[in-house]
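Troubleshooting: if your tokenizer reports a length mismatch, compare your output against this known-good record of 90 residues.
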Amino acid sequence: MCLGIPGKIVDIVDDANSIAKVEVSGVKRNVSVALVRAEGIEPGDWVLIHVGFAMSKIDENEARETMKALQLYGQGFIDELDMLHSSQIE
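Known-good structure output:
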């Protein structure tokens, strides 16, 4: 199962290559924000992430509601978190 997980941008770590540090469930990872840069990404923004890539920009309320819904997926949600935790984009 492929799920998108909400994450909060905490820093733009490589502006030239569109890499941001994003926090998801207490874990911080570098993710590519290249697909959403045109939407104006900055620290404090929320994005929907799948396997190290920000797929869309969302608001904080949508992020909270999405996390609640994702937790209902049980193992699918855990698997997606595991993929995020193991991803390394530098």
